[in-house]
Every structure is written in C-alpha cells, then in structure tokens.
Amino acid sequence: MRITILIPFQPYILVFIIPFFTKAQDTYQRNSSADVQGYIFNLTLNDENDSIVGEAAFTVDFKNEVNEFSVDLIKKSSRYGMELRGVFEGNTPAKYTFKNNKIKIAPTLSGPKTRTFKIQYQGIPERGLVIDTTKFGQRSFFGDNWPNLARHWLPSVDHPSDKASVEFSITAPDYYDVVATGEKIEESSLGNGYKLTTYKEPAPVAMKVVTIGVTKFASKILGEVYDIPISAWVYPENRLDGFSDYGVATKVMKYFIDTIGPYSYAKLANMQAKTQWGGLENAGTIAYFENSVTGKNEVEGLIAHEIAHQWFGNSATENDWNHVWLSEGFATYFAILYQESVYGNTKRKEELELDRKQFKAYYQKNPAPIVGAQHASL
C-alpha cells in the first residue's frame, strides 16, 4: 500500500509518500524466539574515505528455546554495502550465513537463555548513514534511519517490533563534535588525532529512531525541563539563528510532559542535520532539515510534531509498519493541541484546515485508500 505522511509546520507542510508498502499485512520475517535486549555499536569514522569500521555487540534473550535467528545488514555489492570480518557468540566464532541481506546466526544449543553476540564489519553505507558535506561545506556524518535504513550501517533487527537499549561508541577525528542517541558518558582523546565519544540510552528504542551526528557543531543547553536537559546542535555558521529557532523546544517539552506524561529518554537534543525528511523524530536526538534554521522562528509546529513523536512512535511504537499512520496521526494532533495552547482556537482551526486541504489535494492526485490490518497495535 501507499502511505502518505503529512507533517505540518509553519509555514510549510511536507508530504512524505512511502511507496513500498503494498500489502495490508507486514511481511517482515520476525525472529520467533530471539529478542534483542541491547546493542553496543562501536564505529570508526575517518576523513580519508567513506568506509566505516564497526563492531555490533548485542545481548539476546531466547524466549522458549535456543534457535537460529537473523539480523539485518546490507551486504556489499560493488561500491556500497558491508563486508563481514567476523561473527562471534561471546568470544567464540559462531556459525552463520550471510545472504539476502540477512545474517543468520546458529547459536550453540547448550548454555544460558541470555547471550551476547558480536558482528565485526566494514564498508561504505549507501543510505542510513549520510556521509556528505553540510550546506556550508563541512564534512558530516548523520544517521537517517527512518523507515528501515539502519541495516545499511548497523547490524540489527531493523523492524519496530523489536526495541532495545542502545549505546554508541564513536571514534572520529578529534576536531569533530559528536552527538548521538542517549546521554554522553565518555569523551576521551586517543592521542592520535582521534577521540572516542560514547552515548548510552537505557530506554528501549526501535532502530528507525536511533542516530548519530558527527560534524563541527555549535551546541547550547537551552534549558532543563523536569531535570531533562534540552539542547540545540547547529552549524557554527548559523549558530545564533539556530539557537533562536530551536529555543522553543523547552516550552514544547514542558507542555507535552504536563499534558501526556513522563518523558522516556536521557535528553532532548535538537540537531540541524543532513536528513531526507523535514524532521526525523530520533529518540532524544531529533534531526531537522538544514534550512530549518533561518532565525525567523518559523518551525515551531515542526518542533512540536517531532517532540510529540517522543511519546507516539518512540515510547509507544507500532508493532507493524502498516500502522505507522497511528504515530503520525497522534503527533500531528498533539502538535495542533500545543499550538492551540499558545495561540488559541483560531490557530487550531487554521492548522486543521491546512491539513484538510493537503489531504484533499493529495487524494485527488492519488485516489487510493490507506489500507491497514484489521487491528492496530502499539
């Protein structure tokens, strides 16, 4: 099926079309007995080329019995994709196959129900990790996983039904600033022109909403809301404009905590980024498109939408891809409620009318229903 996602923000509306959903039922082949509990991604980035070197360590709970299970990773084909350097159960080489962009691991039959596996790999990601230059010409690395692009650079169960804690340990040239999903727990010079930066998010998250940002940033703590630090990470060239545009995030955050309930993540960073979307609701580290920074404070609606996703889509996550309209609908609705709380009922009506016109215009060009399974599940 085709899903149209409307993300409103003043003064624009972005229309995203997800064309690859052609059936009502999600066809992802899930692991029947293996449940990933946590990932540790060790990544090395460099400026000589676009190749990354990685190690993914992940803890797996086997629910009933120990069975073969799979993780997603795009295999090297010509220039792009990943080559395996090793697959391990603990520190022992594991039996596995790597085909059709799936690493299928056969664990030893005896042993505990909870085990740790490691995958060592390297290659150039075609998507998912955007290695490019910013609009000001600075080299940059940005995670841009939505909807299922994590598999291009992170060995993982790349499906929203399997959420896990995540830790990023990123080795990169020491002149870069690094932000990622979670709370920063280490920044250390390695003495060779590189530094190690580690972020850890203990709350379970889906791979579609984990990220890193590595470039030359200007960053600022915008404030704290109920002891949660709210920050802005923007390009130095538009530092003051970025801090001003993203400054409203503290007010938005307080409204949603007061209206919806507790916030799940270690922080809320608002990041100017190379993203294919207008905004991407990465858990605790939201990415906004580069030109969102203007100094004119025009993206309050977008910021409200992406922060609302921290509850709807991130904390409460669709079990199947065909239900993604639920989180988008809730985020759109709560962004309108926030704007109504600030600007009154007239603003609410304006936003609803704008959405109605956009839906109608899209349907006239693409008269197809949105098809979903009979029962939605979050």
How is this structure best described in words?
The protein has a domain at 34-207: tricorn interacting facor f3 domain (Immunoglobulin-like, Sandwich). It is 18% helix and 39% strand. The chain is built from 5 helices and 22 strands. Helix 4 (324-343) runs antiparallel to helix 5 (345-365). The model is unreliable at 1-24 and 373-378 (pLDDT under 50).
Summary keywords:
globular; 22 strands; disordered C terminus; 378 residues; alpha+beta; single chain; Immunoglobulin-like; eight-stranded mixed β-sheet; 5 helices
Care to give the gist of this entry?
With 378 residues, the chain is of the alpha+beta class.
| Succession of helices and strands | EEEEEEEEEEEEEEEEEEEHHEEEHHH
Content-based structural category: alpha+beta
CATH topology of the domain at 34-207: Immunoglobulin-like
Strand residue percentage: 35-45%
Outline the secondary-structure elements.
Layout: E1 3-9, E2 12-18, E3 34-44, E4 52-62, E5 69-72, E6 81-89, E7 92-93, E8 95-99, E9 102-106, E10 114-124, E11 129-133, E12 139-143, E13 164-173, E14 177-180, E15 183-189, E16 194-205, E17 212-215, E18 218-225, E19 228-234, H1 239-246, H2 249-259, E20 268-273, E21 279-280, E22 285-289, H3 300-308, H4 324-343, H5 345-365
Parallel strand pairs: 3-13, 19-20, 20-22
Antiparallel strand pairs: 1-2, 3-4, 4-10, 5-9, 6-7, 6-10, 8-9, 11-12, 12-17, 13-16, 14-17, 15-16, 18-19, 21-22
Helix pairs in contact: 2-3, 3-4, 4-5
